[in-house]
Amino acid sequence: REGEPFVDLSEMPRPAKLTYLVDKLVPRGQTALLYSKGASGKSLLAMAIAVAVRTGRALPGGLAAQAESGVLYLDYEADEEEQRLRLDYIARGMKLETIPRVICRHQTRPLVADIMRLKGEVVRRGIGLVIVDSIAYALGGNAIDAEVCIEAFTALRSLGNSVSRLVIAHIPKSDKESKTASIFGSIFQENAGRCIWEMQSVEERGGVAIGLYPKKKNWGKKSEPFGLRFTFDDAAESVKLTSYDLRNDSELLGHATVPYQIVALLGDGRERTLKQITEDLGQAENGVKSALRRLEIRGDIHQFNGKPGRGHEATYVLDARRISEDDPF
Questions:
Q1: How far apart (Å, rounded) are the C-alpha atoms in residues 156 and 119?
Q2: Which of 72, 206, 247, 287 is most buried, judged by most C-beta within 10 A?
Q3: Are the CB atoms for 28 and 194 separated by under 8 Å?
Q4: Neighbour tally for 203: CB within 10 Å
Q5: For the segment 34-63, what is each residue's pLDDT rounded down to a tens digit?
């Protein structure tokens, strides 16, 4: 009844920098959000993350689990049978000898009404990651209502600092064709998330390619976009997760920021003029100019002044440091 204690920060030992349960995506003891349109592969990726945390295995794209822990998957959309099938396909794709123990619960009550029961299970089962799929159904009220949203995320936070939370969210119908989408509902969902990623996907033969784009990170340098690919093997009843180069798909690359698109374009080591970059990206010239200036300041690109006379424009090239990186994109 007294709530949390009062803490004199000056008497605390200096904590380590922000750490992750799953690198890039899920800060340890914090709330992360992953949002996209429906049927884009969010639940499949969430289950792959659950497997990584439960087994301590690393996923492609730099998604390494930093600790093994119990996982509780709160499913408001599907049922246990569908999730069991996802788990089996992923485990086969990762060539695991046994099926990981992921605890799943088909949810029918709002988070706020169910939180005391969930707290008990989290402690009893040694849960370190709770996945909510998806938050719109878990709110128990109007998603644009600030009070409803705040209560739900406060309930999640009450699970304690030893429990990380991955919340799956949707986008508004009006944003489905937009280059940059927002989370459906109150802005307080974005405020509550300490690390937020937007996800876009395109169907391919035998699978789906997805792009992940950082939208918020409360501490430290923001990560860069990256791609993943799920490849289904119906004969083996498995799905394999691999890295995916966003440059392979103009639609996925187009959802990234203009500076990122420029870096990707110059990744082949060729010099290009402002006009060439603008035409290749299909972007407004003023936006490209602004992005080029930022990249120059960061040292990611270099400008070479053109020779005197007409027809000799300045050209831009990617810094050798970026070209030499094993996976700069």
A1: 9
A2: 72
A3: no
A4: 11
A5: 999 988 999 999 999 999 999 999 999 999
SS3 content of the chain, % helix, strand, coil (to 5): 35, 25, 40
For 317, the token pair is: 């090239």
| Beta strands at 127-133 and 70-75: parallel, antiparallel or unpaired | parallel
Phi, psi (5° rounding) for residue 118?
-65, -40
List alpha helices for 146-249, DSSP H. 146-157, 188-192
Nearest to 54 by CA among 126, 113, 147: 126
CB 163 within 8 A of CB 2: no
Counting other chains too, the contacts that 144-149 makes at CB distance below 8 Å and 24 or more residues apart are: 144/185, 144/186, 145/186, 146/186, 146/187, 146/188, 148/186, 149/185, 149/186, 149/188, 149/189, 149/192
* pLDDT digits 0-9 by tens, 217-251: 987 788 899 999 999 999 999 999 999 999 999 99
Q: Are 194 and 33 in contact (CB under 8 A)?
A: no
* Residue labelled with tokens 């890295």: 243
Integer-rounded Cα radius of gyration of the chain:
22
**Which helix H or strand E contains 41, and what residues bound it?**
none
Q: Give Cα 297 to chain centroid, integer Å.
A: 27
Write the Ramachandran bin of 109: left for phi over 0, alpha for psi from -120 to 50, otherwise beta. beta
